[in-house]
Write a structure and sequence with these properties.
226 residues; mainly beta; Lipocalin; 11 strands
């Protein structure tokens, strides 16, 4: 969910990751008999990478709240809320006193004063089938740009500002006595959410934004359901 993305050549481009399939928003249906488990927001994280012609920027956004729904030990639904005023550019804040962070929060991009929250709500969870090309890289705290050995395909409605689109991407989900952990990494086309600020004429911003998402729920919460 941010503005300007990465690669390691003279012309920067988005990380070599799975591109989320994007379509119209879908109806959310609840699976009967599902139990709701709160996300541990302190142990969960969302990272982003944005690139332009000459450089990349990476940062984070805090998860404000969220729940995971479980049915027979499998994720059946869920939703989390992103606290958009917490969006920061890590590289920018180290070197230029938050200039880029302020721009990302402005009406040119996410307009956080008007739209302080973005949301993602699961609409479908199916077993993963297919292959992914795993690539290493040092810009992400969540490690490689693709999920290693995904076991599920997740679809859900992603709302940014006043636009909601359904996206589909591979994820690795673990539900056991240690708790719940779900990891996903993918690119989206920012223009699908009307994030169309072009950048400078000689240093255009690329369309693709990379997201790395790690959600966790505590084992104690799972145990309480049994």
């Amino acid at each position: 969910m941010s503005a300007v993305l990465l690669t390691f050549s003279a012309c920067k481009s988005a990380p070599n990751a799975d591109e989320a399939k994007t379509g119209d928003a879908q109806e959310v249906t609840l699976t009967e008999g599902s139990a709701t488990v709160p996300i541990n927001v302190a142990e969960s994280k969302v990272e982003w990478i944005g690139t332009k012609v000459t450089a990349y920027h990476n940062g984070t956004i805090d998860i404000k709240s969220g729940d995971i729904m479980l049915k027979d030990g499998v994720i059946s639904g869920g939703k989390f809320v992103l606290d958009m005023p917490t969006l920061i550019s890590l590289k920018d804040d180290e070197g230029s006193n938050g200039k880029l962070t302020g721009h990302l929060k402005s009406p040119d991009f996410f307009d956080v004063a008007i739209y302080p929250e973005s949301t993602f709500e699961i609409t479908d969870v199916t077993p993963f089938s297919g292959t992914v090309d795993n690539n290493g890289g040092e810009a992400s705290e969540i490690s490689e740009y693709n999920v290693t050995a995904p076991n599920y395909t997740i679809s859900g409605n992603l709302k940014i500002k006043d636009v909601t689109k359904n996206i589909t991407f591979p994820a690795k989900i673990s539900v056991n006595n240690n708790g719940v952990e779900a990891v996903a990494k993918f690119n989206i086309d920012r223009k699908q959410w009307n994030l169309v600020y072009p950048g400078m004429p000689d240093d255009l911003i690329k369309d693709m934004i990379w997201f790395g998402i790690s959600l966790k729920a505590n084992a104690a919460e799972i145990t309480a359901l049994k």
